[in-house]
Structure formats: C-alpha cells, structure tokens
Design goal:
The chain is mainly α. The chain contains four helices and two strands. The relative contact order is 0.11.
C-alpha cells in the first residue's frame, strides 16, 4: 500500500483554498488526493466539535485528558 504523504505547504494551500470558499472536491482534484483527505486536513485545522457541541481544539483535548481545568 503506497504512503501518500503531502508536504505542509500543500496542506496549507488546501486549507487556505477551502477557507476562501473553494469546495473540498475541487481542492482534492487540484492536489490529486481524496475529498476525505482535504476534509480531514480542514477539520484538523479548525478543531472538531466535542460531544457537547462545543469546539474542542487539540490543545484543550490534551489539557482535559491530563486533568487541567480550563477556565
């Protein structure tokens, strides 16, 4: 199974394109990857919604797992 790893500048270009209104499908076609890959990069960039529907960033998730309270 091939390992498709994209350099950070490609990921940044994809995120900037999606942020400016280009669809995941169009960005994926341009880069040559799947729509799901672009959607994952964008979700990683934006964070994701936790079970309470509150945006959770990776940093706050790490802090919560280690018992740090966020005020």
């Amino acid at each position: 199974m091939p390992n498709y790893t994209y350099p950070i500048h490609i990921r940044v270009q994809a995120i900037e394109s999606v942020t400016s209104g280009v669809s995941f499908v169009d960005v994926a076609r341009f880069i040559g990857c799947s729509r799901k890959t672009v959607a994952k990069w964008y979700a990683d960039y934006r964070g994701y919604l936790g079970k309470e529907g509150v945006p959770v960033t990776m940093q706050s998730k790490i802090n919560t797992e280690f018992g740090d309270k966020q005020e």
